Amino acid sequence: MNLVDTLQIIVANMLIYSTPLIFTSIGGVFSERGGIVNVGLEGIMTIGAFSSVVFNLTTANIFGSMTPWLSILFGALVGAIFSSLHAVATVNLRADHIVSGTVLNLMAPALGVFLLQVLYHQGQINISEQIGYWNVPLLSQIPIIGKIFFSQTSLPGFLAIVIAVLAWYTLFKTRFGLRLRSVGENPQAADTLGINVYAYRWAGVLLSGVLGGIGGAIYAQAISGNFAVSTIAGQGFISLAAMIFGKWNPIGAMLSSLLFGLFTSLAVVGGQIPGIKEIPSAFLQMAPYVFTIVVLALFLGKAVAPKADGVNYIKSK
Questions:
Q1: Beta strand segments in the chain, E
Q2: Are 38 and 208 in contact (CB under 8 A)?
Q3: Cα-Cα end-to-end distance for the chain
Q4: How confident is the model at residue 302 (pLDDT cuts 50, 70, 90)?
């Protein structure tokens, strides 16, 4: 295997494994920029993966090759509905954000497995219609660069990068973004200016549900090809780490997700890469999670979250 082929495998798989993390971490950015801590990203990804796989199995004979893409949209819808539980608990009932998010993480896998038994009488379901590899038109024909970056790659990955740029523009260049950030920094001051704090916090949480549902759906449609209790397996927590490492900025979250995706891809395709295939597979499989712990240990204390992040707002105060 020559250098170009090696780089093509690494870059393509990095983008594939980064895509769910990019969507989900950006969802976390919207939630926490509005002042709602969302550690329930794992649960949202899980329910997005479950619902998309069920939709895929149910409609594959109707929609054919379009099924995975429609399944992603269905996963986004269910993710939004599921995240509304977190919004009700934290915004309306003023529950502890960490406890509420943990409940989502515990509820989603159990609910998914229960419904699998009810609907299919088994603990795992596989899909036949998946998102395959993609060659970027024209760009994939460029010598060397085209093969490395634009051949046998991921269409959702390029869409995720576009979404990251749009999310940055929305947060920092639009009225909605300014108001959402003001609600996450000083909700009392925002309220005195006529901003509906509760509505904007709801919007942030629902956006995290939509994007987290998409992340889980893409993971199920493009990577695992199935749903079981262990399908997501920590991807939501890695997304949370990417959000913190990216300093609650969509572009930073995207770049962090790409870095985490690189470690994950090396764990998967490392056996094909000279110099890495000699490393025991167990160490490669541990690498993404060890890197997550290291990042959180080194940067959690230094990263500055929005000032009102995790602080319940009571209008009468």
A1: 125-126, 226-227
A2: yes
A3: 66
A4: low
* 48-96 residue pLDDT tens: 999 999 999 999 999 998 999 999 999 999 999 999 999 999 999 999 9
Q: What is the pLDDT of residues 133-167, one digit of tens each?
A: 889 988 888 988 998 899 989 899 999 999 999 99
Are the CB atoms for 263 and 245 separated by under 8 Å? no
Task: Inform me whether the pLDDT recorded for 317 exceeds 70.
Answer: no
Comparing C-alpha atoms, which of 131, 130, 176, 127 is closest to residue 158? Answer: 131
Question: Is the CB of residue 232 less than 8 Å from the CB of residue 216?
Answer: yes
Q: Map tokens 């999310």 to a residue.
A: 167
Distances 245 to 146, 235, 248, 300 between C-alpha atoms, Å? 30, 15, 8, 8
Report the alpha-carbon distance of residue 194 to residue 67 in Å, rounded. Answer: 43
pTM > 0.85: yes or no: yes
Which class for 143: exposed (0-12), middle (13-18), buried (19 or more C-beta within 10 A)? exposed
The angle at the Cα of 311, spanning 182 to 199, to the nearest 5 degrees, equals 50
- Burial, 279: exposed, middle or buried (Cβ in 10 Å; 0-12, 13-18, 19+)? middle
CA 204, chain centre distance (Å): 15
Buried b (16+ CB within 10 A) or exposed e, 75-109: bbbbbbebbebbbebbbeeebebeebbebbbebbb
Amino acid identity, residue 211? Answer: L
Say if domain 3-299 classifies as CATH 1.10.3720. Answer: no
Q: What is the pLDDT of residues 169-204, one digit of tens each?
A: 999 999 999 999 999 999 999 999 999 999 999 999
- Rounded CA gap, 205 and 270, in Å? 37
For the record, the structure tokens of 308 come out as 């009102």
